[in-house]
Design goal:
The chain is an alpha/beta fold. It folds into 2 domains: 38-249 and 402-406, Uncharacterised protein PF07075, DUF1343 (Rossmann fold), CATH 3.40.50.12170; 260-392, Alpha-Beta Complex (Aspartate Aminotransferase, domain 1), CATH 3.90.1150. It has helices at 12-33, 38-44, 71-76, 149-164, 208-217, 260-267, 296-305, 338-349, 364-370, 374-380, 385-390, 393-403, and strands at residues 54-59, 82-88, 106-107, 114-117, 135-139, 168-171, 227-230, 288-291, 311-318, 321-328. A 7-stranded mixed sheet has the order 3-4-2-1-5-6-7. Helix 4 packs across helix 5 (208-217). The longest helix has 22 residues, at 12-33. The radius of gyration is 24 Å and the shape is elongated.
Amino acid sequence: MFRIQSKFRPFFPVLLAAFCCGLLATGSRAQAERVELGIDVLKQHEFSILQGKRVGLVTNHTGIDSEGAKTRVVLSRAPGVKLVALYAPEHGLDGVVGAGKYVSAQKDRVTGLPCYSLYGPTRKPSPAMLKGVDVLVYDMQDIGSRSYTYISTMAKCMEAAAEAGIPFIVLDRPNPLGGLRVEGPPMEERWISFVGQLPVPYIHGMTAGELAQMANGKGWVQPKCNLTVIKMHNWQRSMTWGDTGLRWIATSPNIPYASSPFYYAATGLAGEIQGIETGCGGPEPFQVAACKWTSAGQFTSYMNSCNLPGVRFTEYAKGGFQGSKLSIDPKAEADICSIGVYILAAAQKATSRSIFTGPDSHYDLFYKCYGSNSIRSQIERGVPPSRIVASWAPYNQRFISERRPYLIYP
């Protein structure tokens, strides 16, 4: 235990009080600056936009307020609001269904309301599913990558709302990758699908609300809907998730940590190629890149030689797979999406055969996620990854300019 020097003893009560006040002031500033979500702002305005309405809610377990209360519970108890139906995306209402697995309709055990599946017989609410609904509300946490299907669900629900003649409301949430990072390949029209519904860069740097505004404004959803975005308070484009003061909820089984969206953006594309291991299903999903036809030392040496600022690779070997474990600084200057291309190049460099074995049809999902099938011939021909990544730049610069009118936050 420390001792106070005698000359300071008379002043100790004053110093202690000043110190405590400082702590309280710091805590109060931190509390004041914490991001307030769309659902928080809706509550602050006493749900005025929903008063007297029968509400349908597109949501899952990530739809919570900043205190952790489920949005579906908050709306079910909101005075003057009648929550009548729920709609669940891929992974289901509780977020535990595996990727690509059928989601069944169910009765929600929390609210007792019917929950329609938007990842079962249909990806879009049918007229029957919207019967008796006056307004459709969307509240789910996205991860900032084009191929994550929650945004595709939002686009389909916008179309359904427009066709039903009812308003569509987005309760906005942070982009965990931040709002400044715009990276990755464009989406060619022929490859648009539910895993790439909107023609934006793979990392688009927009919130769900901003994407909804752009999709509506650009006519990417038809017909256009009557859209309202309930904006967040205190979120800025420079913020990644760790800056928000909010608790992270695993958005799906392989996105368990606040850092997971960065690793998904880095390795998710390469992981669609048979034989490349990314750690999914284990404790560190998307945090490794490995295959069975290389050595950990060779692979890691190549990846570190790519000089990607803020990204570090260490040797990894498990279950016959060898390669690298990734460490990504959320503020890394490197193009995170480019890592996937370097991984493909490293895997190809280590073998004399093509890593794309079999016909193109075997790789449809990969091409749908990447947005083009051009990457196959580029990797097979040994085109330098840096040249492939540089080819994205003109499109991404145009996108940054085109998205400007639809941005909400500074």
